[in-house]
Amino acid sequence: MRLKDLAEHLGLSQTTVSRALNGYPEVKEATRLRVSEAAAQLGYRPNDSALRLATGRAGAVGMILRGLDEFGPHTSEFLGGLGSRLATQDIDIVVTTVASYQEELAAYRRLAASQRVDAMILHSPALNDERAELLMDLKIPFVLHGRTNINKAVAWLDIDNTGALERATSHLLDLGHRRIALLNGLKGRTFSEHRELGYMAALSARGVPYDPALVANAPFTDEVGFRLAQSMLELRPRPTAFLAGSMMTALGVFRAIRQAGMTLGVDVSMIAHDDVFPYLNADNMYPTMSTTRSSIRQAGSRIAELLLQMLGGKPAADIHELWPVELVLRESSGPAPLF
């Protein structure tokens, strides 16, 4: 069905129907509802090119993924939440993959020049993120999944990584652990730096010295978690507990513990950051896994909502959300062993 056909069916001008479908304020609410209901019943969808001309919008948001560490279950969960919410507004996601940081910067410039997206999602930000500065220069609206310290008004949604790790570390200290290993994300990423701050604050509060040999920064994969845990378990004295930055890392740590002939929750404890994967349930593991819990799918859905608010005129300075992280204790975290 064409716009002309819909207009003739309703007995309205094409201009009125177009304005009603695109939310122009001068169209009466009753007319707008009548047009939208008829469009839904008759299966009318506006031509993308015509819609872009009418609204000045591309009907898409962009996200750029760089490096192998950004392709995995965390990303798929985030995109699942993001896409589900944007689909309700007929907005698509343009995902661009690049191999290097310079290619990523070039991709932002290319998207700005082509006007193929109305906004961007900026993920895994650094403490002082040049990408955020570039997007502001390019005048592309964006929401940060995380935070950065560029001292400018940017929209962001983040979780309380510092508080989460401080609570998890404090719990292990309460259980008598003093050699606590932290398998963290990549150095320089804001979430990694915030998590290490929480870890160090808990140690400092109890007078436990910080040991750099017990801290590692790496991508969150099963294999990396296995190798790191394996080498740390060979230290003397060895760690009696692990803080795993993701459930994928925790799987590797679990393998290393078993290979060393030890029992999780008895000889070695662990608390993992759990992104609530539907196919990897901490309650169904054996033993069940203690976690700091936060849903990355819900974060994706909420960021989509924040993008829609921004495109609707809400200032970036008014879009700041810090989500608390729940500590869920299960069988993998037990008292420190007596050597």
Question: Briefly, what is this?
Answer:
This protein is of the alpha/beta class. The protein is built from 12 helices and 12 strands. The chain has helices at 3-10, 14-21, 29-42, 48-55, 73-87, 101-114, 130-138, 161-174, 190-205, 222-233, 247-259, 296-311; strands at residues 60-66, 92-98, 119-123, 142-145, 155-159, 180-184, 215-217, 241-244, 269-274, 290-293, 320-323, 326-328.
Total of helices: 12
Average predicted confidence as pLDDT:
91
Helix content: 40-55%
Radius of gyration: 24 Å
Spatial strand arrangement across the major sheet: 2-1-3-4-5-11
Largest sheet: 6 strands, parallel
SSE sequence, one letter per element: HHHHEHEHEHEEHEHEHEHEEHEE
What is the CATH level 1 assignment of the largest domain?
A: Alpha Beta
Q: Give the domain tally.
A: 2
- Beta percentage is 15-25%
Number of strands: 12
Gross geometry? elongated
Uncertain residue segments = none
Span between N and C termini?
A: 77 Å
CATH architecture of the largest domain: 3-Layer(aba) Sandwich
